[in-house]
Amino acid sequence: MNRDLIRQHLASHEGAIIRTSDGRQYAVPHPEFVLIGRHNVVVEHPNGYLDIIDPLHIVSIRPASRRKTRKTSA
Questions:
Q1: 53: CATH
Q2: What is the pTM of this model?
């Protein structure tokens, strides 16, 4: 994928999952957790760790599924 397409996909979703060619998945809770550079895509985890990904290895970006919570009646 190219940078513009990655940027476009991530901006259109509140949360997303990035999948790479080796089968790894990277959760992006919000577009602010991603830095898209000229040669790298950096995903920051809430605990502060960074994953540096080559954009050529990104094969898909899909919206993160939101869990539906059940309301219990009291």
A1: 2.30.30.100
A2: 0.78
